[in-house]
Amino acid sequence: MKRTLPILILLLLSMVLHTAAGFAAAGSTLVYKGKISSVDAKNLRVTLQLSASKKQTFRITPNTKLLVNGVAVKFAVYRPGMQAQVTVSKKNGATVQIQGITRQETAVIPDLAKYRTGIVRDIEGNRVWVERVFGLMEDFTVYPSTSILKEGKRTDLTSLYPGDRVKLFMDKAKSNQLALLEIQNSSIEMKELYRGQLQSYDTMFYTITLKNVEILTDNVWKPFKSLLKLPVDVNQPAYYGPNKTAWNDMNQFTNKQVYLATVVKAGNEQAARVLIQQSFERSYAEQVSQANFNTDLFELVGSGSFTVHPGSILIRNGRLVDQYGLTDSGFAYVSAADANQGYAPLANIINIYNEGLEQPQRVRDQIYWGTLDTLVDGRLFIKDFATQEMHQWQYQYGASKELFYDLDTSIYDLTANKTVPSEEFDRQNYAVDDASSTWSGRKDWYGYMYVRDDRVVAINVKQTPDNFLNHKTTTAKVVSRNGTLLSLKEVKEWSLTKRNWQVMTSSFNSLDVSKAIIMKDGRKIAASEIQPNSNIYVIRDGGTAIFVLIT
After folding, report:
1. Residue 486's closest CA among 526, 537, 532?
2. Secondary structure letter of residue 429 according to DSSP
3. CB 93 within 8 A of CB 129
4. How far is 46 from 35, CA to CA, in rounded Å?
5. pLDDT grade, residue 342 (50/70/90)?
6. Which of 67, 247, 275, 472 is 20 to 30 A (C-alpha) from 383?
């Protein structure tokens, strides 16, 4: 029985996925098949996405039979995104049965325990959405008292990315009060994205060879090698467009265009995602305006809707993620193939390439530049300050803001080139009251601040102001580091006039980070901790960095 159960489940999946959208008549009942788009737990209603443009809502009654993979379940098991078929009575329209279908061998939901595991799908402020068994989606709130661990070290939410596997510890078994969030496995960091014509696939040694190979750099395909041979991860399926194809059948696609997304495992590069191009494509580079995970659609400003399909290679922050990695505020490079008439183009490559404070786990963070007006008892008042909004400084002349600092705040004096202990911060002359400034001639200093929830994480102070109108916002990938000098590639700069990221055609390829506030995983780090292949978001003055965010 145990051997036949997975086969039965796959047959059920096949029936749902390959049957035309809509309903089928079955004697005295109608059967509707599709994907659950929403669940109304209060009013006991389930909405099914029957096609790209059609939905239908079904009301649950005490007589409705609730199943998943043929096993009786409670209504709370059904979640958006789950495949399902709903049987309705022709006579009175009552919902007779809901049959949910998952890839799990059993639909028995484990009892609530003090810990749960799953994959992070979305992050918004201090809320984290985690996909558990059966496609069950739960959201958890991270409180100030919640501990977050990564590789055994304390960190915060900025270390968490969609695709990370986590273990969640609750205060109580039947509670969503999160006591500890442990990041167990990080999402997959991509090394490179290649495309080329398939020359051969070795079924014995599991290697793939491409010819006329190009590499994606700065959203442009550039010549790389005449031949490229790499091992493949056969535990991951290969796709021909949106459809899976068996590895043993790969050679039938000889001379077809193939995309390879690679990762590094045990020091060796290998193909983690393989997608065979099915038809001609067009490329786009625009802002993502919205994403609908229930319909697998997303929109680009100015270019309309696109479909995320099972074979889509989705990259965010240099990491391979699933469709939940799409973000409304991100800019993306998309390579898409025309679909059948009436359907949105199929997006084969989706590369979200700008980040910074737009990352959902950084919505509580802010970057400031301003005049230090008052320092007293862990409180810092700034005036005539500017904040980073949409990759540029927004100046607020005459405004004031109260911030807080503590013993963990990193304070550096750029004028004297020294670290300042936080307990001595208000004893120095960094902020001068109006009365003493008149007779002493001393003036308030200026500061660059990285702030979370009005708490100053790090501040660099200096005696004279900078002309922040000269500052540029840049994204890049680190090639190498020599002391505090970074060598860069894939450099893009935010254009105020075009409101988009522009590839830098000049020879800007190095950056001095000796005076920068460098942030990674929610804490300030030293330049020596910046690793090659890191994706960085930079506010700079010429070739000198002011802020560096490791994204």
Report:
1. 532
2. S
3. no
4. 10
5. low
6. 472
Q: What percent of the chain shows pLDDT beyond 90?
A: 38
pLDDT at 243 over 50: yes
What is the SS3 assignment for 10? helix
CA 187 remoteness from chain centre: 10
In sequence order, the β-bridge partners of residue 493 are 474, 502
CA distance 369 to 383: 9
Looking at this protein, which amino acid is placed at residue 421? P
User: Could you tell me the end-to-end alpha-carbon distance of the chain, in angstroms, rounded to an integer?
Assistant: 48
Residues 6 or more apart in contact with residue 75 via CB below 8 angstroms: 41, 44, 60, 66
Interacting residues of 505 by C-beta distance below 8 A, sequence separation 6+: none
How is residue 17 written in tokens? 């996925």
Q: Could you write out the DSSP letters of every residue in 493-549?
A: EEETTTTEEEE--SS--EEE-TTSEEEETTEE--GGGPPTT-EEEEEEETTEEEEEE
Give the type of residue at 150. Answer: K
Name the residue among 195, 133, 122 with its Cα closest to residue 164: 122
Residue 511: CA atoms inside 13 Å, Cβ hemisphere, count? 31
> pTM, whole model, 2 decimals?
0.62
Report the C-alpha gap between 427 and 418 in whole angstroms: 15
**Considering only CA atoms, which of 391, 392, 315 is closest in space to residue 356?**
391
How many other C-beta atoms can be found within 10 angstroms of the C-beta atom of residue 467?
A: 7
What would the pLDDT profile of 138-167 be if each residue is shown by its tens digit?
Answer: 888 888 778 888 877 788 887 888 778 888
Closest CA to 89 of 15, 16, 31, 20: 31
Tokens of 348: 């084969």
Q: Which two tokens stand for residue 542?
A: 């010429």
With tokens 């290649």, the residue in question is: 194
Going through 142-280 in order, the beta strands assigned E by DSSP cover 147-150, 153-154, 165-170, 178-185, 188-189, 193-202, 207-217, 220-231, 238-240, 243-245, 257-265, 268-276
Q: Report helix, strand or coil for 351.
A: strand
Distance separating alpha carbons of residues 238 and 244, to the nearest angstrom: 6
Q: Which residues pair with 36 in a beta bridge?
A: 48
Tokens for 354? Answer: 């700008």
What Rg, from alpha-carbon coordinates, does the chain have? Answer: 27
Q: Which of 302, 288, 295 is nearest to 355 (CA)?
A: 288
Bridge partner residues of 388 (DSSP):
393
